[in-house]
Amino acid sequence: MPPTVTLYFNHFTSSVTNILETHHLVKQYADHRALDDVSLSVPQGSIFGLLGPNGAGKTSLIRIVNQITAPDAGEVILAGERLKPGHIRRIGYLPEERGLYKKMKVGEQLLYLAQLKGLTEKQAMDKLKIWFVKFDIKTWWDKQVDDLSKGMQQKVQFVATVMHDPDLIILDEPFSGFDPINANLIKDEILELRDRGKTIIFSTHRMESVEELCDHIALINRSHKVLDGTKQAIKQQFKTHTYHVEYQGTLTDLPPAFTVLNTRTTDDGFTRTNIQIPPDAAVNDLVRHLLDRVTVRSFGENIPSMNDIFIKAVGQTNA
Amino acid sequence: MNTTILIIKREYLVRVRKRSFIIMTILGPLLIFGFYALIGWAAVSSASQKKIAIVDESGQFSGQFKDDDELAFTYEKQPLESAKKTFVKQGYEALVFIPKDVIKQPKTVQIFAEKNVNFNLQNNIERAISKQIETIKLKDAGINQQIIQDAKVKVSAQTVNLSKADQKSSNSIATMIIGWVCAFMIYISVFIYGTQVMRGVMEEKTNRIVEVIISSVKPIQLMMGKIIGVGLVGLTQFLLWITLTVTLFTVGSAVVGDKATRGQQAMQTSGAAGAMGGQATVEAMNSPEAKQAQQSVVADVMQAIDSLNIPLIVGCFLFYFLGGYLLYSALFGAVGAAVDNETETQQFMVPITIPIIGAIAISQFVVKDPDGPLAFWTSMFPLTSPIIMMVRVPVGVPAWQLILSMALLVLGFVGTTWLAARIYRVGILMYGKKPSYKELSKWVFYKG
Predict the structure, then answer these.
(1) Tens digits of per-residue pLDDT, B149-168?
(2) What would the 3-class secondary structure string for B118-178 be?
(3) Nearest-CA distance from B21 to chain A in Å?
């Protein structure tokens, strides 16, 4: 293949399939390096989990994408173009540290924020009406933010993040402060936005919501990207080749290649054993061996949870 | 719409709509008006006539105390001892006793009263008696009445500023007061509106709204938007105060004008009566000489104001108000960005408040010596010039000094704004870190 074609192909992939790319980002503060050579690709239409322990550099990365700060090296590409001030309109950002003007009325405040994003007053009004109906908060328009509960304020904040119809939505810990009902509402909203072709970058410590929502993941630890890919691929990468079996009877003569990790008795009288097999062994051999000796109630592979992967990956890089 | 204008609009509207702004705007002129109304009322009410009894043993003073709007004199024939017992019951405010040998021993005059003797009353009586003694002694020395009358001339010196081409007379007290009032207004407004900027920045930071805003606009836009917005609030308040005060005084003087004029007349005539002393008659008070004496006080002030270059003073006031406000509010904004809460502001407020409080302190010396080296240097230094120069301008400042001072002030606020913006953009995103001066200086040199 001639090189020109390769170039064309590269360009094609970056402008269409990835809404956001970062190339070798470096952010240096006086006494520490917040980001060190971080390259990421966020596919269009994905829910992208940006994970990492506290102080890993997630917020620094998000602030660079939002043009709040500038990187010391590297570049950010949004929808095929180098990041520029005009891109602000295409990004919606819900920071972890968030708030509203307490003494301002809800409607007025949202209009103001929308206009700062570049909408005209009329455009902002039209979009806001839709959201106020959708979230059933029409009566809040003339209320002062002070008079709303924290959960209500969060809803207003979410509207502020998405009202200008951005292509890329960055949510930093979006569920903190929400009760389960409102958290569900926001979750449904996130899924709906994804279905409409929007991309959501989702930074959180709550692994169960990552498990539930994200299809792509990147893990940052100590200023470095340590992991990224689709959720499936990462789970595959971190699988331990261990299986669990619940049975009645006595398990004997297990071939030496198979290792029993632990055994315990369940509450209802079954025995539960975790067995590790060599990576190149066939699972069916284990199943066949089990079937000949014990009464099997259940059998399955131990798939690592995002929580396990997080702890393991962070632990490995810290070691 | 330009985002900076949007920010200015919000900052302005939020503050102007506040109840406290509306209350202050209405209350300010009302307080000023009320203060003047009180003075006017006091003048009118004190003008009620008081009865004074006189026991004149010398017999030299009969007919020498003339009644006016304030005081009515009655000559009592009874001796001092009995008069002392009865004068209060008879409705007299005070009893004046003039002994027989008052001409030789003038210190023996006594005033009796139930309450404390009014200072003005004492003054009037003392002056009337001494004038009369003077006249009697002069007459005894053989000088005739006409010469004595001619010799009593009221002198009011007019100071003339030679540097003014038209040589209008100037009044140094009036110019001093005007300069001081301008300087003080700049001082107060820099403080009030500077801290408003600081509070606004802190509100955005502690409410965590700043990160949302900063993802839409540049930090410098947010900072400048706030500074300009608050500055416009200040200008609005000044304009409303001036308009309201003028309206109140126009309406007020139309309503109570009649009374006030009478009060004023009473004050003036009593003053004149005192000055004219025993010789003064009712006719004398209406004489052209007396009228001139009254008018010349008013004329002095009017002339002083007339002799000042009002457009220059107003222009300088606006320039130095704006310059001083911009310079200081940028610094106040930087402090607001650097800290997490009100208590932490203290350590950073000190270096900002010292020059401005220092300037107001220095202005007292500058008033006395408006062309001295202290006045010169402090009116060049941008941190003190908005206050010191305003003290000097009404007195008269060489053009080159004014231009240099203004240029330095512009440089000064460009400098502080640049410095403040550097601190601001880092500070507003920095939480839970108690910054030191060392830390702040690092922020100034952060990239991007």
Answers:
(1) 777 776 666 655 555 444 44
(2) CHHHHHHHHHHHHHHHHHHHHHHCCCCHHHHHHHCCCCCCCEECCCCCCCCEECHHHHHHH
(3) 14
